Every structure is written in structure tokens, then in C-alpha cells.
């Protein structure tokens, strides 16, 4: 049984590694597309900021570990978690191969829901749909933590991208009207030079925000695996070199070794790159200049940071994609390439049911093979 625990933890770390090169590609696409940083420089910056961001709170991890699946209805076993991870990893790799920036967050959530439904024999009460606790910021369930943010965060990313661009252009226009030295600074050459430097800050902010949200999702899965193993007695006879795996607290706590391991693995995945998705995000949707990259990264990172604070596992992909769309729309509505956007939207729509279906099928296969 201990072997199964280690397999689940390893699978979770594989997902985190895949998340690193899959979703981090989204977070650094703009800074590469604007040629402010080379791909290698952008990867180093993103990996470093991912690592720092992953240590900033555990609210999202707690949502994954205790806010989506009703443990009183379905037994969240190690096999269920393994199939959930299998669904998420498989869908991530499919979309990565196709160059589609789909959501690793929703792939993991879909996998978890699909495996839980299979384990509960299609009892939909196994999923926590909505649980009010008086304060909406602490409400649990798929409605509050997944579906509301899934709709609101892309809209917010788009609108904030438009707003930031409008404000920046208004400032530049005011400088041009002022005449003198300010007017010279409003020329395209100086604007590009300034935002080329400013985008280093916004790209670092984006990497930090990605770490605060995405790294925590796998932390929640590993925490669930450790709690399940403890309940089954699998941790009773741990060898001394694995003694750190004993949970320090209850189900709402995320141990420090889980945080550190997930942060390091995501940083390593980031270093592996993800240039297929960068090409789609940074070049195919709309042509970007440093001012556009700054606006898109600032908008997306703000959405991610706020969501992490409230424990909402939102999609880095959704927020940066729609922020780029918003920036492109502000620049010129006709500049957006809607055929590429349509492919991305379909990937969003399909992610949760597709990853859930794969996980559901895997658990049923496990049952047929007698592995449950």
C-alpha cells in the first residue's frame, strides 16, 4: 500500500512538472513575443518567480483537498486520486501537443470530479456543488470555486486588459499634448524602450501570480493522498527516511514538505519550456509590442493574485489569453485572429468534461482489472 502512496505522489509531481511547461508557457509568452527577453531568459525569470509565489499561501490547495469532493458520500482512495491525475495529465499532453493553451487547473478539477463520480457509481452528490458558510469569500463547492471564477475571470481579464491599455494610451496622449520633454518621451521609440524595461516587472509579477495559484493545486492533491493513506493505515509503518510524510495537522493543513516539493517541481517544469503554446499565445492571436505585453501581464497577474487570496483555483491560461484579447481589442478589434481564439475557446469548454471522462474511464478500467 505504501508503494501506491508513493506512486500517487509521483503522479502528482508529474502533473506539476507538466503544469510547469504547459501553463508557464502561457505566463511568459508575451514577454517572449515582444522580444523583451529571449525564451531562455524568460524561462529563468518565470521559474524563479514561480518558486517564490508557490510559498505564498495555501488557500487554493485547501479548496482542492477539501472543498470539491464530499468525503461522506465517496471514499477518496489513492486509486481515485491516481485516475484523477491520469485524466489531467493526459488532457494536458493532448492540448500541449496540439499547441492549445487549455487550462491545467480545469484538467485537474475535471479529472478529480470524473474519478469521484466513477467511485460513487454515478452519484452526483459526491461532488460539492455549493456550500454557503455566511461569507461568500469562504464558500465551498464547484459553483463558487470553479464555475463562477471560470466565467468571471476571463471576462475580468479581458476588461482589465482593455482598461489598462486605455489608461496607458490616455497618459501617453496627455504627454504628447504637453509638449517639450514630455512630448519627446511620448514618441514610439521612447515608449517601446520604457515598456521594454517595465515588462520585466510585469513578467516577474505574472510568474509570481502563476506560482501562487497553479502550484497549489497539486499541493491539494498530494495532501488528499496523504490523508487517505493515513486513514487506511498505510503510514503506520513508514521507514525512517519517509517519516516526513506523516501529516502535521488535519485535513485543512498543507505540510511544508508538500509546498516545497511542488514549488521546486513546478520550477523545474518551467525550465523545460513549452514553446508550442508560446507560439500560439504570443504570435498567433495578435501582434504585441512591449506596452501591450505589459498591459496583458499586469491584468492577468492581478486576476490570479486576487483569486489565490480567495482560494479560487482559476486558470492562468484563461486569464492571460483573455487579457491578450482585451489588449488586442483595445489596439484594434480587427487585429484579433478569431479562428485561433475559437480553437482556444473550444479547448476551454472541453477541458473539464474531457479530463473527467478520461479519469472516469481509467477508474472503471481499474475496477475491471481488480485494482480497486
UniProtKB/TrEMBL annotation:
It is a multi-pass membrane protein. It is found in: Membrane. Coiled coil: none annotated. Keywords: Membrane, Phosphate transport, Transmembrane, Transmembrane helix, Transport. Its main location: membrane. The chain crosses the membrane at residues 43-64, 76-98, 104-121, 142-170, 190-209, 256-278, 344-363. InterPro entries: Phos_transporter (IPR001204). The keyword Membrane applies. The keyword Transmembrane helix applies. It comes from the Bacteria. It holds the Pfam family PHO4. Belongs to the inorganic phosphate transporter (PiT) (TC 2.A.20) family. This is Phosphate transporter. It comes from Cognatiluteimonas sedimenti.
